[in-house]
């Protein structure tokens, strides 16, 4: 049975239930605990319970997040007997690499599987011009929000990812590229930025996403600056304020429509947080400036939201905001209801936005051949079951 065979009521019920699924605990069936995903304070507490002083947590943090070491016996600043004791009680975990696919354009898609066998996709998108690139990370298995153009939103089951599972995607991608240890400062490297644009709505899993980002930004570990992290949301207004205050990462907002009537239909969350409230939250977002602009994502759907009048309404809507507009050509997936805009229409739309003073890059789809492009992510298990 495909998810589209369900009635709207059944779908609502399943998704409402699924929304409460929380991630598995970090204790393995053999009783060992995964140290990845603990905050610094939790790691100190864990060591305290284990009879070790706080400096032990500091050492472990360095080995785990700066050096990328998983094997306690390689942690040379720790005496051998203690290494052995640690290995009996703890692990430094990673998600399992279920599949690893390379696109013709060097985009690489991983399917990472977790302990309960749920899986998410993580995509590495190299920058064509430089030796760097973005890791597109998932925040949930599936998504409960059902935007009409999005493949992830058709996935039946959903649960939140734990902080360990979110950090683990980045760490496992680093393993695949051999990018340990972490550089000091902002040295360019292949995995240089993170975009929270994979599967799921990060602001519907705020606590775990925030914890994961704090681990990734910690100066003594991976040390990625908040300027190198972009969180994309479909507009969970109250959580946008919190993310701005507590994390200060770059913000991307999936706008996609300029009237509530259309946005209600294609981004159903709009019925809860309409356009006006989303834009107001953007105006309040701390640190937004010309140097750190808010990105508005706008998916170009042929004959739906891509007219020149739409473009003019868009620039009016965001007037005065330090912003750029990312025009995303719609990436079709099997069974999707829309067509991508024509290249001519895309250019006309982009020109209007640009003439109003906003950078309006047209995002080139990457990794289309391996279904790694925006909005095409969906776990392989679900694909097998549903199509
Ligand atoms: N839930 C968050 C982040 C994940 S979606 C959000 O919606 O912002 C990341 C981006 O992919 C969003 O801008 C989304 O609108 C876009 N997207 C979804 N489906 C797409 C498709 N079929 N083609 C192109 N982009 C798509
Ligand atoms: Fe969820 Fe984002 Fe897809 Fe909408 S576009 S269904 S919010 S992942």
From TrEMBL:
Keywords, in A-Z order: 4Fe-4S, Cytoplasm, Disulfide bond, Iron, Iron-sulfur, Metal-binding, Methyltransferase, rRNA processing, S-adenosyl-L-methionine, Transferase, tRNA processing
Gene3D superfamilies registered for this protein in UniProt: 1.10.150.530, Aldolase class I
Predominant subcellular localization, coarse grouping: cytoplasm
Active site (UniProt): 121, 374
Comment on bound cofactor: Binds 1 [4Fe-4S] cluster. The cluster is coordinated with 3 cysteines and an exchangeable S-adenosyl-L-methionine.
Catalytic reactions of this protein: adenosine(37) in tRNA + 2 reduced [2Fe-2S]-[ferredoxin] + 2 S-adenosyl-L-methionine = 2-methyladenosine(37) in tRNA + 5'-deoxyadenosine + L-methionine + 2 oxidized [2Fe-2S]-[ferredoxin] + S-adenosyl-L-homocysteine; adenosine(2503) in 23S rRNA + 2 reduced [2Fe-2S]-[ferredoxin] + 2 S-adenosyl-L-methionine = 2-methyladenosine(2503) in 23S rRNA + 5'-deoxyadenosine + L-methionine + 2 oxidized [2Fe-2S]-[ferredoxin] + S-adenosyl-L-homocysteine
One Gene Ontology biological process: rRNA base methylation
One example GO MF annotation: tRNA binding
Localization per Swiss-Prot or TrEMBL: Cytoplasm
InterPro entries in UniProt: Aldolase_TIM, Methyltransferase_A, RlmN_N, RNA_MTrfase_RlmN, rRNA_lsu_MTrfase_RlmN/Cfr, rSAM, rSAM_sf
GO CC terms, sorted: cytoplasm
Keyword S-adenosyl-L-methionine belongs to the record: yes
Presence of the UniProt keyword Plastid in the record: no
Necessary cofactors: [4Fe-4S] cluster
EC number: 2.1.1.192
Domain named Radical SAM core: residues: 129-368
Binding site for S-adenosyl-L-methionine: 200-201, 232, 254-256, 331
Annotated HAMAP family: RNA_methyltr_RlmN (MF_01849)
Physiological role: Specifically methylates position 2 of adenine 2503 in 23S rRNA and position 2 of adenine 37 in tRNAs. m2A2503 modification seems to play a crucial role in the proofreading step occurring at the peptidyl transferase center and thus would serve to optimize ribosomal fidelity.
Family named by the database record: Belongs to the radical SAM superfamily. RlmN family.
Something else known: Reaction proceeds by a ping-pong mechanism involving intermediate methylation of a conserved cysteine residue.
Record-linked PANTHER family: 23S RRNA METHYLTRANSFERASE, RADICAL SAM CORE DOMAIN-CONTAINING PROTEIN
Protein name: Dual-specificity RNA methyltransferase RlmN
Organism of this sequence: Acidocella aromatica
């Amino acid at each position: 049975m495909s998810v589209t065979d369900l009635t709207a009521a059944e779908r609502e019920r399943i998704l409402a239930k699924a929304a409460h699924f929380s991630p598995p605990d970090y204790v393995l069936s053999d009783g060992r605990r995964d140290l990845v995903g603990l905050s610094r304070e939790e790691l100190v507490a864990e060591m305290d319970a284990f009879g070790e002083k706080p400096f032990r947590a500091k050492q472990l943090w360095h080995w785990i997040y700066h050096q990328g070491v998983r094997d306690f016996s390689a942690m040379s600043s720790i005496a051998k007997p203690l290494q052995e004791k640690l290995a009996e009680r703890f692990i430094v975990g990673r998600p399992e690499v279920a599949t690893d696919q390379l696109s013709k354009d060097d985009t690489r898609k991983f399917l990472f599987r977790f302990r309960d066998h749920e899986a998410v996709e993580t995509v590495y998108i190299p920058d064509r011009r430089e030796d760097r690139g973005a890791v597109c990370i998932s925040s949930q298995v599936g998504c409960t929000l059902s935007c009409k153009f999005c493949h992830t939103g058709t996935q039946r089951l959903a649960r939140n990812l734990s902080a360990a599972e979110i950090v683990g995607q980045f760490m496992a991608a680093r393993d695949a590229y051999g990018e340990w240890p972490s550089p000091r400062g902002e040295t360019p490297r292949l995995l240089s930025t993170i975009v929270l644009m994979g599967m799921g709505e990060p602001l519907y899993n705020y606590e775990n996403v925030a914890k994961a980002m704090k681990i990734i930004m910690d100066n003594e570990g991976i040390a990625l600056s908040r300027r190198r992290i972009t969180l994309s949301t479909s507009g969970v207004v109250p959580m946008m304020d919190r993310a701005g205050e507590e994390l200060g990462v770059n913000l991307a907002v999936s706008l996609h429509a300029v009237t509530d009537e259309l946005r209600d239909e294609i981004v159903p969350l709009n019925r809860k947080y309409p356009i006006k409230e989303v834009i107001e939250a953007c105006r309040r977002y701390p640190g937004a400036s010309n140097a750190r602009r808010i990105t508005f994502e706008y998916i170009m759907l042929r004959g739906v939201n891509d007219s020149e009048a739409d473009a003019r309404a868009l620039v009016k809507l965001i007037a005065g905001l330090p912003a750029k507009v990312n025009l995303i050509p719609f990436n079709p997936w099997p069974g999707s209801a829309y067509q991508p805009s024509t290249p001519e229409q895309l250019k006309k739309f982009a020109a209007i936005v640009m003439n109003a003073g906003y950078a309006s890059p047209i995002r080139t789809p990457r990794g289309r051949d391996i279904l790694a492009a925006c909005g095409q992510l969906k776990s392989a298990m679900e694909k097998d079951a549903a199509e």
